[in-house]
Structures are given as structure tokens and as C-alpha cells.
């Protein structure tokens, strides 16, 4: 896969579809590599008339690991006594740097979970680079958010696994806990996803530093009131990691935002919701005037 140097780091990325089509930048969440955007989903989105770009965030996958910063001080980040190695604003600037390197003036930005935090900050800090904003299973900043359940919190603080098999088992446990009740757990599929991710890159120290950046983020609901691009907020009603109240808060802050709540969906993007999600992204881009009705 190609790589560019942007914002003083190397960013691994991949594209799908016609480069002359309207660009969509997909931003993934905490510790999740770009391959968490399912290959088939990316191909389907490209088939709807977009140039799709997915990438690894800093400290994740095959983009630059920030190991020189040392381990994250999570307790210090929670108390506010320790500064993170970098901020979510830095990660938003990484995304803009990738667009610069690819010669893209502005894009439809789509973020899932922590990726939703990042695309919100792209819209706040770099409004001229955003055609539309889609925030999926995400929410406002840590001080303003509804908390995860104890079961989901246990995932955030689970220690790294030691062996490959233990890592696979842990990853499958995480997926099973976060999956919504309407989506049965397919052990074969989920094991294949876990193996692919772990064999590609396993970097829990980077996930810790990303988590510290999330915890240190400043309130942004008031800033979201200034966003003026067409905005879509999608959230599962059974999300235990970032409960649906968080998506409602974001949609309530952004003027004119469309909120779509999905029954039985947890903190995951199950295949059954792809058609609805694709339709919503297409409709949003048509609203922005960048994609003509088919």
C-alpha cells in the first residue's frame, strides 16, 4: 500500500474507485487500523460514485509509531495532571496533511468512534477542507460525554495480551462484547478479522497514547455549533462503549444535522446496516451538491 509523509509523520493509506470522483476520507477509531473499514464496504462506497481513501492513524497500523514519547500516563490524563504525547487536534491535522499530499482540496469526511472525534475536529479546525461530515458511533469530548457501561470500560483498561493466540482471543472477546444484540457473533469471520489485524500490526502502546489523547480533549460541543457543512450522525441504540446519548448530543449541537439511530446496533458496523449507511452518505453528498442523483 502507498505511504506519504505529512504533518511530520508517515501515513499508510489505500484508495478505492475513480480518483476523479468526489473524495471520501474514512477515519477509524481507537487502536483500529484502516482495515477495520471493511474492504467490501469500501468497494461498495466507491461503486456509489466516490474516490474512497482509508488510512492508518498515527501510532497505529503501518503509520508512524510515536514510541519515543514513552508509555501513556492514563491516570494522569484522567486527572488532567499529565499532558498526552499528542492531541486529537494533531490527529485531525494528520488527516488534512494526507489530503494535502494527495492534492485534495476538500473531502467528505467519515469517522467511526474516535474517528468521529477526529472528523469533528477537522470540521472545526479546518472547515474549508470538509464537504460533508459523517460521525458514526461517536460523540462529544470526554468531559461532555455519557460514560460507557462497566463491561465496556473493562475493555478500555484490559492489559495487552502476551502471545498471538491470546491477542486473537482478546480481540474476539472485544468484538463480541461490543456487538449489538441484533447481530449474531460469527466466530469464523471474527477470528479471521482478528488474525488479519494482529498479523498486520499489533501496537498496544500506541492505543494507550491515543486513549490519553481522547481523555485530554477539550470540550467541543459549543464549537460544533459553528459547523456549517451538511452533517450526518449515525448511532446504534445498543452501543455500550459510546452510548447513543453521545450521538444525540453531537447531532443536537451541529445546526441541521441529521440523526439516524439504528435498532440493535452496538459499537460496530454490521453488514446489515451497510445499505442504509451507504444511502445516507450518498444523500448527504447530494445535499452538498457534490454528487448528482443517479
What does it look like?
- The chain has a single domain (3-288), classed as Alpha/Beta hydrolase fold, catalytic domain (Rossmann fold), CATH 3.40.50.1820.
- An eight-stranded mixed β-sheet has the order 1-2-4-3-5-6-7-8, sandwiched between helices.
- Helix 3 (88-101) crosses helix 4 (114-125) and helix 6 (164-178) crosses helix 7.
- The mean pLDDT is 96.
- The longest helix has 15 residues, at 164-178.
- Helix 1 (39-47) links the parallel strand 3 (23-27) and strand 4.
- With 294 residues, it is α/β, with parallel strands linked by helices.
- Helices cover 40% and strands 16% of the residues.
Terminal-residue CA separation: 31 Å
Strand content: 15-25%
If you average the pLDDT, what whole number results?
A: 96
Top-tier CATH class: Alpha Beta
Strand order of the largest sheet: 1-2-4-3-5-6-7-8
Largest sheet: 8 strands, mixed
Percentage of residues in helical conformation: 40-55%
Q: Tell me the Rg in angstroms.
A: 18 Å
> What is the CATH architecture term?
3-Layer(aba) Sandwich
Amino acid at each position: 500500500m502507498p505511504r506519504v509523509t505529512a504533518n511530520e509523520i508517515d501515513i499508510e493509506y489505500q484508495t478505492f474507485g475513480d480518483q476523479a470522483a468526489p473524495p471520501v476520507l474514512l477515519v477509524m477509531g481507537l487502536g483500529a487500523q484502516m482495515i477495520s473499514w471493511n474492504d467490501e464496504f469500501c468497494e461498495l462506497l466507491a461503486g456509489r460514485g466516490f474516490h474512497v481513501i482509508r488510512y492508518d492513524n498515527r501510532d497505529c497500523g503501518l503509520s508512524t509509531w510515536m514510541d519515543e514519547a514513552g508509555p501513556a500516563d492514563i491516570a494522569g490524563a484522567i486527572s488532567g495532571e499529565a499532558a498526552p504525547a499528542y492531541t486529537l487536534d494533531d490527529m485531525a491535522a494528520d488527516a488534512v496533511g494526507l489530503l494535502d499530499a494527495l492534492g485534495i482540496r476538500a473531502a467528505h469526511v467519515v469517522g467511526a468512534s474516535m474517528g468521529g472525534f477526529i472528523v469533528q475536529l477537522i470540521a472545526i479546525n479546518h472547515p474549508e477542507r470538509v464537504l460533508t461530515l459523517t460521525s458514526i458511533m461517536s460523540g462529544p469530548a470526554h468531559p461532555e460525554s455519557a460514560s460507557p457501561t462497566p463491561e465496556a470500560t473493562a475493555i478500555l483498561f484490559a492489559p495487552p495480551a502476551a502471545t498471538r493466540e491470546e491477542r486473537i482471543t482478546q480481540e474476539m472477546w472485544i468484538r463480541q462484547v461490543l456487538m449489538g444484540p441484533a447481530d449474531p457473533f460469527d466466530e469464523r469471520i471474527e477470528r479471521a478479522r482478528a488474525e488479519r489485524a494482529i498479523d498486520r500490526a499489533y501496537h498496544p502502546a500506541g492505543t494507550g497514547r491515543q486513549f490519553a489523547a481522547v481523555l485530554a480533549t477539550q470540550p467541543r460541543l459549543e464549537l460544533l455549533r459553528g459547523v456549517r457543512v451538511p452533517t450526518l450522525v449515525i448511532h446504534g441504540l445498543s452501543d455500550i462503549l459510546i452510548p447513543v446519548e453521545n450521538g444525540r448530543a453531537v447531532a443536537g449541537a451541529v445546526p441541521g444535522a441529521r440523526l439516524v439511530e439504528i435498532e440493535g446496533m452496538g459499537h460496530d458496523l454490521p453488514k446489515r446496516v451497510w445499505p442504509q449507511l451507504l444511502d445516507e452518505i450518498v444523500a448527504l453528498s447530494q445535499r452538498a451538491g457534490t454528487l448528482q442523483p443517479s
